[in-house]
Backbone:
């Protein structure tokens, strides 16, 4: 019984290796290549731990935040990465990702299916302070990558500051001081020509 | 004051992007390329969450485990990945990694330097149940990658089962059922010729 359960869990571990093949639009900070989802996920989980003091809710459950962050992109193994400013891609994003979540979390033992699926849904719904703070990390991260690569992906997709501001609004909501930081960074990015006004 | 602190934390986030450039000996599960440390770290953090029920200490602090796992390889940004079975590389591994830890964690605000450095040292010393369970994830992971790639890295380095068994001893200590699983997997690996007897 326990052996079967372990085999099922190990199959899940094997399956999610696919996250390392999902390429994002962001480039590594030195601009050498595009980042993949596993790398991105590691990075935002560290950010979640590092920046917690700035969270507006100082009682948030940080373990839950990190768990959410570590698994929230698994759906992209099937659904692919939808670029944040791809209007067309967003039309069926939810349907594609929900189907992916059902398949991928469905590989887990039943009790874990429920727990992990619920965590993913909580992240997607973005209502709890944990989900908001997690989303803040997920949104802040590509801004840093874009800024430090002098806007490689922003320029390639002709992104303007207004849409990025909407996208990062949750940062100010979940962590006001970080919201101020990112607002200043976006202003500088426009001045430097990384991002359209 | 807060602004300066955030800038220092963001510089740390920027610096640790280097983990994505540290290549390991293990190959991705589909054998297409070598894995990097950021991908490995993401994967073992998920394993830590997924496999917790098998830990011999059911009261272990899982948030601490995940924090340890997420940051334990940062030293390799400077010190490089030392292959587990590279006897010569191990001679000065500790000196290289300690110097790296001092530089990298030293980039953090002072209070976080202490906390993160202590977590890294706890992992390296391997005495607490959290450190042992974290090490178990770190050791189990490359065995899975090797097994599912039919032993690419094991074959390349002519690794024999005895040294792998010593390396994974902590798995049985921290999580007996997983220890049995990995023992069975190693037996099968030898039978299939992935690993030398």
Residues:
């Amino acid at each position: 019984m326990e052996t079967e359960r372990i085999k099922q869990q190990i199959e899940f571990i094997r399956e999610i290796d696919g996250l390392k093949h999902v390429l994002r639009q962001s480039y590594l900070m030195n601009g050498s290549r595009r980042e993949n989802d596993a790398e991105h996920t590691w990075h935002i989980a560290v950010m979640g731990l590092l920046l917690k003091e700035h969270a507006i809710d100082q009682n948030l459950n940080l373990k839950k935040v990190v768990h959410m962050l570590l698994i929230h992109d698994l759906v992209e193994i099937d659904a692919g990465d939808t670029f944040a400013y791809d209007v067309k891609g967003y039309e069926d994003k939810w349907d594609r990702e929900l189907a992916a979540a059902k398949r991928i979390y469905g590989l887990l033992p039943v009790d874990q299916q429920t727990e992990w699926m619920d965590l993913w849904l909580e992240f997607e719904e973005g209502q709890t302070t944990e989900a908001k703070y997690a989303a803040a990390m997920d949104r802040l991260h590509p801004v840093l990558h874009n800024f430090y690569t002098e806007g490689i992906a922003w320029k390639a997709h002709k992104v303007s500051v207004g849409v990025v501001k909407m996208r990062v609004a949750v940062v100010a909501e979940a962590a006001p001081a970080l919201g101020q930081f990112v607002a200043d960074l976006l202003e500088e990015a426009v001045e430097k020509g990384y991002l359209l006004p």
Summary: The radius of gyration of chain B is 17 Å.
